[in-house]
Amino acid sequence: MSGIRVSYAGLIAFVSGLATIVFSLATTIIITRSLSPEEFGTWRLVITLLVYVVYIQPVITFWVTREVARGIESAKTALISNALFSCIGIVLYIVIIYFLGDQSGADTDILLSAFIMIPALFLYNVLLAVNLGWKPQVVSYGIIVLEASKVPLLLITVIWFELGVSGVIIAMTIAYIPSILLLLIFSKEKIKSKIKIQYIKKWIRLSWVPLYPGFGTIVAALDVLLFTLITGSVVGLAFYGAAIIIAKLCDYAILLSNAVYPKLLEGKEIGSIIQKNITLISFFAIPLATITIFYAKPAVYALNPIYVGASTAIIFMTIRCFLFAYSIPFAKFLEGIEKVDTDEDASFKDYIKSKLFLVPSIRFIQYSGYVISLAIVLMMAISSSTDEELITYWAIVWLCSEIPFFIYFYILMKKNFKFKLETKMFIKYVLASIVTIGASYLLSLEFLEFNPNIFEFLPNLLLFIGSGIFGYLALAYLIDERTRKIFSAIIYELKSRNT
Asked: Taking the model in full, what pTM does it have?
């Protein structure tokens, strides 16, 4: 067994996630400031189309994480078979582009050129899956190296050579290389095992188990295609892309739960860890969401003043992402306690009755309703609405589709785990966030000048945001004993060298 330490791996993931925010911010600003709305919209479309290609990869990655966490030596088999799957992915991508044709309004040649990202993306994902079951903190290292590599590469391809979307595609592809090398080094102990055909046979035989959850993701990704086909343009996707980049800030709190899933797969009794992990997520997710809501307009202005009209949509998107920061871990926890796949004689009926089927079924129902609702709203509003208004309607539909399913996942959690939502602390975190971050925002209204020069505007903006974060941490520390324990736990875990 790997001896996974939940707190250590979770905190490492979050700390690296905060560092990743810095690199992601630099990456995003380079892209949004260098590309026109049409080009940025094309890039957002590329990202969405790659989701359809990656759909087939969980046939390998889903199982290898579960098996490695349980001490089964299937990592090398996963690595080798992954090469074949990446070839299939390339073919699928080209077919999708062929059927999409010119209906999106994007440059077809640029869309086709993005196929070079697929082999690197597949190799990166399978190595993440191996390390997640082995040493979850390594996943954080891989992510931060990837994000850090993007910045200098984008400066060369997009700023220096002015290659536009093609430059972004080239930079993103090359950026995977150092991260892949790092993940290979950490996983070398697990990939020394022999290649065994029986693993591949099992993965193919049970491929419907990981593919079924992916089908829900495919349905959800239809929102971007629907918007593109209904509006006949990728300009609106640029506003959507800018908004979602800001709104997903609080999603970094999900990283705190990374190590809980493989720990559950080990079959260990983790007692109150679930409850503590949810509280820890709240401690960080609440201020991150508060920052995004208060600073929606200046944040999107920093990306590019063109997209400032998307600031209203960011508020609704942020609330949805905040709920998602809980429902994603809830879903993974529920899947983590499922043991049906440890039984070699388990039947199709057994899998249908398991949480491996229940959880994705819930998501499939949710995303189907979401996409249908979005299509209706867009068709009703398209003739009389601007791109900014359409993005706001999109965000509202997105939020409304998440609320009932967040509640349902919470009910399932209560049935399967002994924990309670610590309401008093939750309220303390909310009030501390509103008071401190709200105060810094009010000061920014008086003193923050909206200067189109990013090198003058961004440092001032970060100063106000930083003061709000510092105020939140200080106030929470003073008024809440559990927060003081959290600080002590963070210091202890980060000082400890035993991984």
From this structure: 0.84
